[in-house]
Amino acid sequence: MLALTTACGQEKGDQSPNGQNVGNQAPAKSDGYGAGSDGYGADTGDAKEGAGKAKAAGQLAVWDSKKLGKVVTDSEGRTLYRFDKDTAQPPKSNCDGACATTWPVASPEGAAPPPGVDKSLLGEVTRTDGSKQLTIDGWPMYRYAKDTKAGDAKGQGVGGTWYAAAPDGKKAAPAAEAEPPAETAPVDPAGLSTRKDPKLGEIVVDKNGMTVYRFTKDSAWPMKSACTGACLEKWPVVPPVEKNDTKGILKKGFVVFDRPDGQRQQTIDCWPMYTFSGDKKPGDTNGQGVGGTWYAAGPDGKPVGAPK
User: Fold this and answer.
1) How far apart are the C-alpha atoms of 265 and 213, rounded to whole Å?
2) Segment 214-260, tens digit of pLDDT
3) What are the two backbone dihedrals, phi and then psi, of residue 139, each rounded to the nearest 5 degrees?
4) Most CB within 10 Å of its CB: which of 16, 90, 98, 209?
């Protein structure tokens, strides 16, 4: 693998360190989460006076909700939430200003894990104003101003971005939606495979059947990605896949690209691979030809249908 990576001419640049990096990285300020926007889902007028003040999380507990599953709560029994526009690796809050009035942050002061939950999951992150915020597995934790008593979970699903947090930091989900036991779970399809598209021919798809793309502004020698920042919101990277978890894919140059932003990206023939947020279901190829630079990837890593 080392030899192949060197052969691709990979340039790692300044990589983010592994792990949660809790408390050592100042988050970027919120962008466009104004009052009433679907960024945080509620007008500031809905928030109670003083709701934006951070309160100590204290001894955390778990509320077993029939509707939501296991939900983590603070010492007052108030539901804790996570925000899809935040990040956990590295931990960063994108809820500031009016957003933080509607969604008051949970302070890490006195925080202790619920019984049976690993203490190492708890951490903290420094916000833009210098204050500290509790994190669970890297995800910043919040309360919701409209929750007035223990057991309220009125923030669930607000704006399509706010969800009650499970004790492990994931989104809370009822047991019926949890993964089936290993002995009964269906066998996963290959991490990367190919399918025959009626218009494009044989193209690469991920384990969910979603089309995999190549960006013609990237390079394989040296291995570089020209898709950074906001571009990655539309074109998420394909995560690393083991060679033995592929079907019909070229093995030459099948290496992992350690991106300068800290993400790890699968390549085919040393070309970075992506999916497209505009594809909503398996079989979609809405990213084909976008901007004259994005094309479905063939099993050899070449852009299918791109001008020669």
Assistant:
1) 12
2) 999 999 989 999 999 999 999 999 999 988 788 889 888 899 999 99
3) -85, 125
4) 98
